[in-house]
Amino acid sequence: MPLKPSDPARSSALPFAYLLILAALLSGCAATSTPPIGAVPGPAPVQPEVRPHPIESSPLQQAMQAAHPRTGNAARAKAMLETLLAATDDASRAQHPYARTLLDQINERQRLSQLAERTNQQLKDSQLRTDELQRKIDALADIERTPPARAPKRALAR
User: Fold this and answer.
1) Share of the chain residues as helix, strand and coil, in percent rounded to the nearest 5
2) What is the DSSP secondary-structure string of 36-82?
3) CB count, 10 Å around CB of 63?
């Protein structure tokens, strides 16, 4: 049941609600301290400078970068991977499965690229042949549409 403006309970509830809102606002203001006017700010805390140390990338990482499909050099990546696979130290042997997988992926990518080029060439040849056959069909249709030249009637001897 809503309170009417003239109701005495409402008139006593308004100041109380106002005080609650004011207390909430003031407590939020107290949380953010502002320096007094004319106070000199202290020095800003110094953040330690973090300099990343250059990490020496492994031959496998270099090969992965060289094998990138859009910006890489597949021949260079293959040479690096073959060199890595030929190495016999323990660190290189640990990377051999990854190097073999990457080399297989590069070989497969090259095979698919060659297949796509061959398929595109076949498509172009097929389209040229289709265009040539269509021209021949159109020429035959033109021949069929033109009426044959009529030979003059010869007088038949009777």
Assistant:
1) 65, 0, 35
2) PTTPPPPPPPPPPP--PPPPPPPHHHHHHHHT-TTT--HHHHHHHHH
3) 26
In contact, 66 and 81? CB cutoff 8 Å = no
Query: By three-state DSSP, how is residue 150 classified?
Result: coil
How far apart are alpha carbons 123 and 131 in whole angstroms? 12
Element (H, E) at 117: helix 90-145
Nearest to residue 63, comparing CAs of 36, 39, 89, 87? 87
User: So where are the chain's domains?
Assistant: 60-145
Question: What would the pLDDT profile of 4-40 be if each residue is shown by its tens digit?
Answer: 555 555 555 656 666 667 666 766 655 555 666 666 6
Q: pLDDT for 37-80, tens place per residue?
A: 666 666 666 666 666 655 678 889 999 999 998 888 999 999 99
